[in-house]
Write a structure and sequence with these properties.
single chain, about 270 residues, alpha/beta, Protocatechuate 4,5-dioxygenase, Chain B, 6-stranded mixed sheet, two-stranded parallel sheet, 7 helices, about 35% helix, globular
Length: about 270
């Protein structure tokens, strides 16, 4: 049995749940909704989220509770949007993720805890990408796993998902440049805080669009240093391991904009 995979990258800040605040937020939100329609077109039956906002320290974590629901209060943007959540967890995929992680030698923890604090990014993404209430899975972002190790984690996620029937959407929830405004701004005037960050983001997105993975690999470290990239571009590492960056594949930008000074993009794998 070899299940199909589709790939996407979305931002995880709650501003895109308030498209009335800024035209750029509207464009990002609409692009996310476009991904939801693409998932429907491709008969996606489950979504696996890797969010750089779900941080783990003691190795890797996988959400395994059959249903996770509640109300989340974001520590920074609590006034922006309501973050109620209700996830149906794909227990088969979650079990496979735990097993494959352990086989690969990773310390892995199965999370089965009532009231577990699901992160803002995963909740925001699910609000926009999952209107049809698909089953989901969640894999944490370990702060001590570097780029190379995260590639290996993406590969085991691919292996786990491909053992299941149907199509799995592998979705990374992350940002690009992460230079936030440090004072309050008028949301209507939001923009990439540093013009050099904007240049870097666009350069990297162009390489993703072209599928020029060799050139991107050569620039990756410079990009991360220069633009303070979210979690060292681990989102791309996860996608790379999961097969989204194989020769002949590309990651195509559906929307690009600013969220409180940072770079944000909605991206679909080819």
């Amino acid at each position: 049995m070899t299940g199909k995979l589709v790939y996407a990258w979305v931002p995880g800040l709650p501003h895109i749940l308030r498209p009335d605040l800024n035209r750029g937020y509207l464009e990002l939100a609409n692009a996310c909704k476009g991904l939801a329609e693409e998932f429907k077109r491709q008969n996606v039956v489950r979504i696996l989220y890797y969010s750089t906002q779900w941080l783990s320290v003691l190795g890797q974590s996988v959400q395994t509770r059959s249903q996770v629901s509640g109300r989340h209060v974001d520590e920074n943007w609590y006034e922006i949007a309501s973050l109620d959540f209700d996830f149906k967890i794909d227990e088969a995929l979650s079990s496979k993720l735990v097993d494959e992680s352990a086989k690969a030698g990773f310390q892995v923890r199965a999370v089965n805890y009532d009231g577990f604090p699901v992160d803002t990014g995963t909740i925001v993404a699910n609000h926009l990408l999952n209107p049809h209430d698909l089953n989901t899975a969640m894999y944490s972002c370990c702060v001590y796993s570097d780029y190379a190790e995260t590639v290996k984690i993406g590969a085991l996620a691919k292996k786990a998902a491909e053992t299941l029937a149907g199509t799995t959407a592998i979705v990374v929830v992350s940002g690009l440049s992460s230079r936030y405004f440090t004072t309050e701004i008028d949301y209507r005037e939001d923009h990439i805080r540093d013009s050099k960050d904007d240049e870097w983001n666009k350069k990297i997105l162009a390489l993703m669009n072209a599928g020029d993975w060799l050139a991107l690999a050569k620039m990756r470290d410079d990009y991360c240093r220069a633009a303070k990239v979210d979690m060292g571009l681990k989102a791309l590492a996860f996608l790379e391991g999961a097969g989204a960056c194989a020769p002949g594949r590309s990651l195509e930008t559906q929307a690009y904009g600013a969220i409180y000074g940072t770079g944000a993009a909605v991206i679909l794998g080819s």
